[in-house]
Amino acid sequence: MSMEIKQLNRFFLLTTAPFIGLFLFMLIFHQPPKLPLNGEQLVPSKTLQSETALIKEQLEQADKTAKVTISSIRKTSTLYKQTTSTMSSIVTTAQVQAERPALIYNRRITNRLGVPYEQINTKRIRIELYKVNPGSYKGYAMKVKLKDPSAMQMSLGKDNLGGAETTMQAVQRLGATAGINAGGFADDGNKRYPLSTTVLNGQYLTGFQSSFKDLSFVGLDKTGKLIGGKFYNKQELDSLQPRFGATFVPVLLKSGQKMGIPEKWKVSPLRAPRTVIGNYKDDQLLIIVADGYNENGSSGATLQELQDKMYGLGVSDAYNLDGGGSSSLILNGRVVNKPSDGNLRPVPTHFVFYK
């Protein structure tokens, strides 16, 4: 309740308190006239007449007081309702004004994407799906507003270290509404292990590994903000309070600036199906999944093209996730992209989204 309304309530009590007190005083302390006992004659006396007159006078005065009190209460009640209505209007206007900059910013970044052809909007999350077709490749962009940080999680293949499952399997098993593939992996016999530093539920799965070569970490912190980059000691990453995250290569954008793409990753392969994730200044997420019919470098998008695309869409930070046959985008129970293997590839980590 606002301070103004609390003050008005106090005023209301102060206004009525004297009248209520007078009425209670009369009830408690007024002594009624003594009545005759066992056959005694009721004899009018000057005292009784005086008391009767006094009672009459007091009743008349109480009647006048009650009328004044009722009138005062009505006026105060009307003022209370008017003030409450005014304060509610002020609060509503303030909320609208406070949200206006965010709405303007969202409209600006959304206009660059076009018109979403599929949307999900709940109390926890807003998802908008767009088509991306700049000419050199085709793909899909998914803009995500996390109203509740817990609406995005990372899954581990079949909940086992070394396990793997497709993004569709992960989404269905966990009851999620959307999902994408996450970090890279290394095969060891029939096992697939997440590549390098991997955090799940705030815990390091296989310990912290200092960034080496071109690898970088990407995930979400405890408040639902995208975090990532190269970390050379555990304290650096711990300070960001990662809730979950995976590792791959390379970083595409940092604080709105293009990062240098290592020469190896420019041509190995040149083109490929790819999955990239980034965030806007207001912490909305943007995910682009580019289609490609093989992994030999002749179809899909280059990292330079996706870097330019994310930059042109106003993304602040962006990271490349695992690609090729691993690239996958699931929404509302269906596979949105066209996996280059012809089928979804089982991988150890996925980012999943809940209604």
TrEMBL record:
Keyword match Membrane: yes
Transmembrane parts of this sequence: 12-29
Regions annotated as coiled coil: none
Pfam families, sorted: NAGPA
Domain of life: Bacteria
InterPro entries (UniProt xref): NAGPA
Domain Phosphodiester glycosidase: 175-354
Keyword set, alphabetical order: Membrane, Transmembrane, Transmembrane helix
Protein name: Exopolysaccharide biosynthesis protein
